[in-house]
Specification:
Chain lengths: 147, 325, 369
């Protein structure tokens, strides 16, 4: 388990960010000099609707402790409806993960526009804290990726 | 049953259909197999009794590509699957002649085995108009069990006796539901996450990845499955890590979410008796609660909830809110 | 012959497990399968057939063959340090290959039925003839088989057709033969390994008459003659029947309900095909092998798309292999009549139906002459 020097748990967070809103929001957070933890690894996707449930499971498989999906606000999708589909899919998938006993705090969807650098940074700070409190992901992961 | 055979052979003889998709007598009293009958003469081996649990609608994907019409025997719950396949343009309605056969619930031979019945030589009382109890003649003595105790798990939450689609009907149907459809799911939801995790771990660790659940599923009709991909280092053939059994079953259930009619074939065929319908039924329950009641296969024109949306849809955060109370 | 009361059987398991791994039928979530014995497990000695056969003990469904890890060489490392297992790459890293260690500890497989023991004989033919499979060989050398007579055989059983004696496991190639009669387990060592195991648990066993199991043996033998599938005839199968059977029209009808799933293959005690794959972990690769099924569409798939392209070919392959090719090559059938496929096929297809279909074809052909 990765730890900081003072023995604090450092989670691995995967953030799927849509190209048009959230990724630009992350950029804005950077250029506004707003900080968010380096534990968050951003993967840029064309649209939140591109996020296949397999991506999320795959992130957990390879050692992620939390997965967050960021997309355009409902109504603002660059492709008109991608985030609406994502919203339904992710709701069902998260419900299923909760159902098989995976802590429901490990997954989240947040809508972040290109103008919301502050929201991006605040969301990530909050999510990392949440995952830190949940600790290491042991219920959903492939042990082969851990040794 | 003779009436059905006569009708089918009449359909074959007068050229209405070119073949009949039904069940053929097995070599044991309880193992009929799906079969394509091409001649009226071959129908002597046709059988329709309590053990004809197999859902034939998936076989219509290939059969409806053949020259001429195929008569297919569908039970009420199979007709939902057939409708769903029409919705997905996987079967050609014009090439099917649907005989809606009556059903009073289908039987699970494992229920008899679990009750200590073995060495079975003969079984009687399984026909559609048969009695309420099934008699077994075994080499270890005669046994009897009530028809309802022998029913497949899915029949206890029967969707009803109506056929959703048919050209003609044969035989009386009976609604065999005697428990609430979502009771099992609710019981699991009431458990703590740790208990649920243990439950699924225990069940899924039995999975041998034979893929029977996928191959029998009428909703799993992709020409090439996402799991049959060689460039993908998760195995389709073995659960090397406990993660893989979870991933396979979650993704499989997800891929059929909104399309699964809850026909229960996955649980019926699982050699390890894993209650796979619990995944699908959870999705159905969530869809019903969050996006309005929806029964896949009821209406071939209806829009599937996962290819639809509204502006007011709930946010994914609802999952945590509901679950954490 | 020795005996031990079934009330006491857990102390026997505990005694064996003290020095050896113990693998036996365990019931989990309603199904019996072979698993390691633990004090709180639910042992299912009364289960006639486990879902999966015990071949897992010798040929597990998956096993890692070796691991490859990337090792970053510290900048001050001298050039001579590289051992033979290290392959130098252009980066300042080396690949370290760690083969999985072969089995080196004795283990006991308890409660194997005669048909499953015969199944291991079929695996031996494949894995112990040149080229020898070292992983399998090591397990065979360290495995001690305690076979158990089949108390009440069921209608799907037809092992006698393949010359298996379910009543008397001392005729099987096991190390110890046992019978359960009236709450007692009777125990008879039949090989050197078996004698040694007997010695190690001798304090728990008491003496029994040599004919204590005779009544049970004749009882089981008698039941077997009544079972429907034991009258199956293998005439027309076996060595040299390839041409006759391969081109038969019967296959074209027979395969139709087949789903192309791997149930029959994975529950079968003699199926031995496997696939070897690499799994990329965070900083390395694990090469592993897992069972494969000839029923799967990607079985031995090649870039050009060759090998069996239709389900009828795959279906034919499985049964031809068991009943014709295997006898051709090794002089024995690779079906042992355990009947698991009879019980488990989702579409009720199985090896018995295949054999019967050809019998019927012959009869019909005869009638037409």
């Amino acid at each position: 388990m990765p730890m900081t020097e003072n023995g604090e748990f450092r989670p691995l967070i995967v953030a799927f960010c849509c190209n048009w809103c959230s990724y630009a929001g992350a950029d804005l957070a950077g250029s506004s000099r707003l900080s968010y933890p380096a534990d968050v690894k951003i993967i840029r996707v064309p649209c939140s609707g591109r996020v296949n449930p397999m991506f999320i499971l795959r992130a957990f498989e390879r050692g992620a402790d939390g997965v967050i999906i960021c997309g355009c606000h409902p109504g603002d999708c660059h492709y008109t409806s991608g985030n609406y589909f994502a919203r339904r899919r992710m709701t069902l998938l998260f419900s299923m993960l909760d159902y098989i006993g995976v802590e429901n705090g490990r997954t989240r969807v947040e809508w972040v526009s290109a103008a919301e650098g502050a929201k991006f940074s605040a969301t990530m700070n909050e999510f990392v804290e949440k995952i830190k409190s949940l600790g290491e992901n042991v219920r959903l992961g492939d042990l082969r990726c851990k040794d | 049953m003779q009436g059905l055979i006569d009708r089918l052979s009449a359909l074959l003889s007068d050229g209405t259909v070119a073949r009949v998709l039904g069940w053929k007598k097995g070599d044991m009293p309880y193992n009929p197999e799906p079969h394509m009958f091409e001649t009226a003469e071959s129908l002597k081996d046709f059988v329709y009794d309590g053990f004809c649990g197999a859902n034939l609608s998936k076989m219509m994907i290939e059969a409806s590509k053949l020259e001429g019409k195929t008569a297919v025997c569908l039970k009420p719950c199979d007709s939902y699957s057939f409708n769903q396949l029409i919705r997905e343009h996987r079967v050609d309605r014009e090439n099917a002649y649907i005989i809606g056969v009556g059903c009073r619930g289908k039987l699970d031979i494992d229920k008899a085995r679990a009750n200590g019945i073995k060495g079975i030589e003969e079984v009687s009382g399984t026909e559609l108009d048969g009695p309420d109890s099934v008699s077994f003649k075994t080499i270890y003595g005669d046994k009897e069990m009530s028809y309802s105790d022998l029913l497949l798990g899915r029949c206890h939450v029967c969707k009803g006796k109506e056929h959703m689609i048919y050209d003609e009907l044969w035989g009386e149907s009976k609604d065999t539901a005697d428990s609430e459809r979502f009771d099992e799911v609710k019981a699991l939801e009431a458990m703590s996450p740790a208990e649920r995790f243990e439950f699924f771990k225990k069940e899924l660790s039995k999975c041998i990845r034979c893929n029977a659940c996928r191959n029998v599923c009428p909703a799993c009709s992709c020409r090439k499955c996402a799991f049959d991909n060689n460039n993908f280092d998760s195995q389709q053939k073995a659960n090397v890590d406990s993660f893989e059994e979870k991933m396979f079953h979650i993704i499989r259930a997800f891929h059929v979410a909104g399309r699964c009619t809850d026909c229960g074939e996955c649980s019926r065929v699982c050699p390890e008796g894993i209650p796979l319908h619990l995944f699908n039924r959870k999705f159905i329950k969530d869809i019903d609660e969050l996006y309005g009641e929806f029964q896949a296969g009821k209406d071939p024109e209806a829009q599937s909830p996962l290819t639809d949306y509204t502006f007011e849809d709930c946010e994914p955060g609802i999952v945590a809110e509901r679950s954490n109370g | 012959m020795y005996k031990i009361s079934l009330d006491n059987i857990n102390s026997l398991f505990a005694a064996i497990a003290e020095s050896k791994e113990l693998f036996l039928p365990v019931k989990k979530a309603g199904q019996a399968n072979y698993a390691n014995w633990t004090e709180d497990c639910e042992v299912a000695l009364d289960s006639l057939k486990t879902v999966k056969s015990p071949k897992d003990a010798f040929f597990p469904q998956f096993e890692t063959l070796y691991k490859v890890n990337r090792k970053i060489i510290p900048t001050d490392a001298s050039e001579e340090e590289g051992s033979e297992t290290l392959v130098e790459t252009k980066l300042r890293t080396k690949l370290e290959i760690t083969p999985t260690e072969l089995k080196d500890k004795d283990f006991v497989v308890f409660g194997m039925k005669s048909c499953d023991v015969k199944g291991i004989e079929a695996l031996d033919k494949v894995f112990l003839t040149d080229p020898v499979d070292n992983f399998y060989k090591a397990r065979r050398e360290h495995g001690i088989i305690v076979a158990l007579a089949c108390h009440e055989p069921e209608e799907s059983c037809f092992c006698t057709v393949f010359g298996v004696d379910p009543a008397d496991p001392s005729k099987a190639k096991a190390d110890v033969a046992t019978w359960i009669v009236d709450g007692e387990l009777y125990w008879k060592a039949i090989s050197e390994k078996g004698e040694e195991l007997t010695k190690s648990v001798a304090s728990l066993l008491s003496d029994a008459a040599d004919d204590a199991a005779d009544a049970e043996i004749s009882n089981i033998t008698n039941i077997m003659t009544k079972l429907p599938n034991t009258k199956l005839s293998l005439e027309g199968w076996g060595e040299g029947k390839t041409d006759e059977k391969f081109n038969s029209e019967v296959w074209n009808e027979l395969y139709k309900p087949c789903l192309g799933c791997g149930t029959c293959t994975f529950v079968c005690p003699t199926c031995q095909c496997y696939d070897i794959k690499d799994y990329s972990t965070k900083d390395g690769i694990q090469r592993y092998r897992c069972w494969d099924s000839c029923m799967y569409s990607d079985f031995t798939l090649m870039a050009g798309g060759q090998n069996r392209t239709s389900q009828v070919q795959r279906f034919r392959q499985r049964f031809m292999h068991k009943l014709v090719y295997f006898p051709d090559r090794y002089g024995m059938y690779s079906c042992v009549g355990c009947g698991r496929c009879v019980d488990k096929c989702p579409q009720s297809l199985n090896v018995v139906k295949v054999i019967k279909a050809f019998e019927n074809e012959k009869k019909e052909a005869g009638a037409n002459v």
